[in-house]
Amino acid sequence: MTQAQWTAVDAYFNGRLSPPDPVLEAALDASAAAGLPAIAVAANQGKLLMLLAQTLGARRILEVGTLGGYSTIWLARALPADGRLISLELDPKHAEVARANLQRAGLSAIAEVRVGRGIDSLPTLEAEGAGPFDLVFIDADKPSNPDYFAWALKLTRPGGLIVVDNVARGGAVADPDSADLNVLGVRRLADLIAHEPRVDATAIQTVGDKGHDGFLIARVR
């Protein structure tokens, strides 16, 4: 199959299972207008995140990597009115766009965007007692995946989920000789989880609008 076919299949299912959403479309448009990279999750992936959070009955969600807030909107929509989502973003410009998108979506009272290095913000969350979180979504710099996951494990309740995006890397994750730092970050993460008795995990390859990639999902025991 080709990229065109993968994209067409995504368009088919999205057209039937995810009706047009002006708020989400506006978030993507605003991100593009601000010059943010077009690396937000696909619509069906965003809806999957929302469904996972709803299935958990999530009340607290942590996101590592905000970008323009597209995935943040999907996740925040799964929360009750008194729920809380904290999203960590390194780039102040990205955070500004995300906050505006969340404001437009009517989710500012639920979703908070914090600016700074994720690896610095995560210990602060622990110190504040911000958790435990029901779901953690990791979609930031891939070399830091093992560190983000280790902190997520500390901050997630038993029975909660940790989801890590972009783990297949177009198939490059299977190359033991790869020197790509993003690939090495995913492989280090897999090695970490393989020896971590506190979680059950799997990884799923995906093809679609975003090409060939995948995600890892871990349930905290």
From the 3D structure, determine the CATH topology.
Rossmann fold
Q: How far apart are the first and last residues' alpha carbons, in Å?
A: 38 Å
CATH class (first level) name: Alpha Beta
Oligomer status: single chain
3D shape: globular
Beta-strand portion reads: 15-25%
SSE ordering: HHHEHEHEHEHEHEE
* CATH homologous superfamily (4th level) name: Vaccinia Virus protein VP39
The CATH architecture assignment turns out to be 3-Layer(aba) Sandwich
Mean pLDDT equals 97
Provide the helix percentage: 40-55%
Question: What would you call the structural class?
Answer: alpha/beta
Strand order of the largest sheet: 3-2-1-4-5-7-6
Q: Which spans of ≥5 residues are poorly predicted at pLDDT below 50? A: none
Number of domains as seen in the coordinates: 1
Number of helical runs?
8
| Largest sheet geometry | 7 strands, mixed
Outline the structure in words:
With 221 residues, this protein is an alpha/beta fold. It has one domain (3-220): Vaccinia Virus protein VP39 (Rossmann fold). The protein is built from 8 helices and 7 strands. The chain has helices at residues 3-17, 22-33, 43-56, 70-76, 92-104, 118-128, 145-155, 181-194; strands spanning 60-64, 84-89, 111-115, 133-138, 156-165, 199-208, 211-220. The chain has a 7-stranded mixed beta sheet, with helices on both faces. Helix 5 links the parallel strand 2 (84-89) and strand 3. Helix 2 (22-33) runs antiparallel to helix 5 (92-104), helix 3 (43-56) packs parallel to helix 4 (70-76) and helix 6 (118-128) runs parallel beside helix 7. The longest helix has 15 residues, at 3-17. The radius of gyration is 17 Å and the shape is globular. The N and C termini lie far apart (38 Å). The model has no long low-confidence stretch (mean pLDDT 97).
